[in-house]
Amino acid sequence: IKHLRSAADLDAATATLILDTAAEMAALAGREVKKLPTLRGRTVVNLFYEDSTRTRISFEAAAKRLSADVINFSAKGSSVSKGESLKDTALTLQAMGADAVVIRHSASGAPHRLASWVDGSVINAGDGTHEHPTQALLDAYTMRSRLGRLDGLKVAIVGDVLHSRVARSNVLLLSTLGAQVTLVGPPTLIPVDIAAALEPKTKVSYDLDSVLPDMDVVMMLRVQTERMQDSYFPSAREYSRRYGLDLARMRKLPEHAIVMHPGPMNRGMEITPEVADSSRSTIVEQVANGVSARMAVLYLLLGGKA
Ligand code: CP
Known about the structure:
single chain, alpha/beta, Rossmann fold, 2 domains, five-stranded parallel beta sheet, four-stranded parallel beta sheet, 9 strands, globular, binds phosphoric acid mono(formamide)ester, Asp_carbamoyltransf, EC 2.1.3.2, Asp_carbamoyltransf_Asp/Orn-bd, Asp/Orn_carbamoylTrfase_sf, transferase
């Protein structure tokens, strides 16, 4: 494949190849091989119109470990403030010889538009409420490395599904790889048709307590207050009481089950600090795995091997 705009761009064989390549990248890093010459002379542009900590830094680290030249573009402080369009910005980057553009944008579909304007690969680093496919890849990688498989895994994705690009990409990728996803949250934050529209096998529940004992993975989503309207979200206290993961709820999970969160977290809202920092939490591991997963994506897309 040339672009990674959606988790739907990945069939099972390609997704598995990316996860296997990420494992090789992690193994090399574990053997103190910090840098590979693979992308020497290639240019990766990080084009970020929305804030990011994990994704931007890990794409930069991944590209540098593959010896690519990295250009970091942030909309803040650029000519975007003078009204320059995404298309003109893209053509400027194209003129500078970008081999890959990693884009985060508040508009759903921005990576698809970008792919029609530039010659290089386009990688979606989060577009509006639509998708975040490399987050889904690092999440799948984390599940597979902790639990040994993806096929047949039972995964609950909990919380603000309505606004979550992480949830959408995870539903698509996990279903492709044979996992069974249950979306859990208040009815106002799970659009009635979302599960069926994304993947018909996806289940929906509004009762977290009844779902937990059957799960291998529980993935808590950030409550996206910046995208929220009052009608969706009655109160933080009520939300935490029904859908927050605290120690008492975590004990309802089977002993082997893991707790995930893509970050950034609202500690005390969707997850308590005790759970986030517990030995079952893979939150820090997910960040570390993000570098290996993004190395694999850059290596395979720019090397034409995916
Ligand atoms: N998980 C994630 O996308 O985090 P950032 O917004 O910090 O990149």
